[in-house]
Amino acid sequence: MKPTPKKKVEIRPDRSTKAFQDFLLGAKLYWGSKLYQALYDEYREKVSLRKGIEPESFKEAEQMMKGTTYSFFAWLERHIQRLKYSDPIYGLVAAANRQREELLQALDEIQPNEHLRLNPSIKFPRYYEAVDFHQHPGGVSGDELAGFVYEYARKTTVPHFIHEDDLHFRMARAVPKGDYKRILDFGCGVGKSTYPFKDLYPEAEVHGCDISAPCLKVAHLRAKESGREIFYSQQNMEATDYPDEYFDLVHTTFIQHEFPLHALEKITREAYRILKPGGLYVNLDFHSAPGGMFGKFCYFGHSKRNNEVFMRVFHDFDYIGLLRKVGFSEAQMLPFDDGTGYVSQDEVPKNWRFPWQLFVSKK
Ligand SMILES: C[S@@+](CC[C@H](N)C(=O)[O-])C[C@H]1O[C@@H](n2cnc3c(N)ncnc32)[C@H](O)[C@@H]1O
């Protein structure tokens, strides 16, 4: 595919908005390093006052940390993210609205074609609509510009100190090498997790599937701009129209923790159905936080403060058990280096970090 030689259509924050968003990023780095470290010191102090007895649950840990840096830590975490999207002047939603006409016009020019299948009558599951995940107002489907907003917002999401796209290349490189003819990114969002696979396997037919049309349109736009041939399709991952045994590799990034268990099981079964025998199902997600109760305390707190309602459920869920139950002959959970180094299960991360794990399963 030839790249389209056009000015990139994207959110271009004005100077004040850019300064505000940069300030938030700086605040987040401070929160995830200095403040996090201070929190850890106070946590250890509190535990030593209890003669070394660790709290047994997240709730008990929260109780123990009352009156410490924790209040500020938690407040700052919640509100950095809230302001990022929702500050009435400098938030990303406001920035997108200032360019509404231009962005909508670019979207209007995109007609469904063989590289972009859309389904205007798709039904959103309740779990998808009921909560503003990541505190994104209306979620990533709630507004026609949501894809642009999500694309920009990811710059300041994860991981700390690392370029936003690096993580997805790391993921693609961490997948065992194979002669993949067809690859699917399940829950591809704006395509950031899809295109590294096209770069790594240029001969492969690469697909991305997501339920959000606003995200898929941005993904398609970026694929066209960069000359990558990728086939995007708007579908619910719980039941797709891909034929049985169609793909050699199905992968996901940041997906499992977003589903209630009944939906997670359906998606896992669907991945199994559309994979060829011997094909790989690879998931990058968060599970089994390292660093004992302190690690869990930070991660569970994040879930609460960022509206990630199923995160805690997935963290404690026997996902390997589900993969085996569905039929995968091999399934393992492997550590993942997000760019800040590997962290063993016992280690308390030096800076705030998601509990990355790579799940690799074979049909
Ligand atoms: C956290 S984002 C991850 C996007 C992408 N994988 C990435 O790494 O940037 C989760 C994505 O899953 C999509 N999603 C959630 N539920 C879905 C469903 N039932 N079917 C298809 N996509 C779904 C959302 O629309 C969103 O784009």
Tell me about this structure.
- The structure is a single chain.
- The protein contains 14 helices and 8 strands.
- The chain is of the alpha/beta class.
- It has a domain at 154-362: Rossmann fold (3-Layer(aba) Sandwich), CATH 3.40.50.
- The protein has an 8-stranded mixed beta sheet with strand order 1-4-3-2-5-6-8-7, with helices on both faces.
- Helix 10 (213-226) links the parallel strand 3 and strand 4.
- Helix 7 packs across helix 10.
- The protein starts with 14 loop residues before the first helix and ends with a strand.
- The mean pLDDT is 94.
- The structure holds S-adenosylmethionine.
- The site of S-adenosylmethionine has 19 residues, from loops.
- What small-molecule ligands were found? S-adenosylmethionine
Give me the number of helical elements: 14
- Cα(first) to Cα(last) distance is 32 Å
What do the pLDDT scores average to?
94
Q: Tally the beta strands.
A: 8
Provide the low-confidence segments as ranges.
Answer: none
Give the proportion of residues in helices: 40-55%
Main sheet characteristics: 8 strands, mixed
In short:
By secondary structure, the chain is α/β, with parallel strands linked by helices. It has helices at 15-49, 58-64, 70-86, 92-98, 100-108, 126-129, 146-153, 166-174, 195-200, 213-226, 261-274, 292-305, 311-315, 319-326; strands spanning 116-117, 182-186, 205-210, 230-234, 247-253, 275-286, 330-335, 356-362.
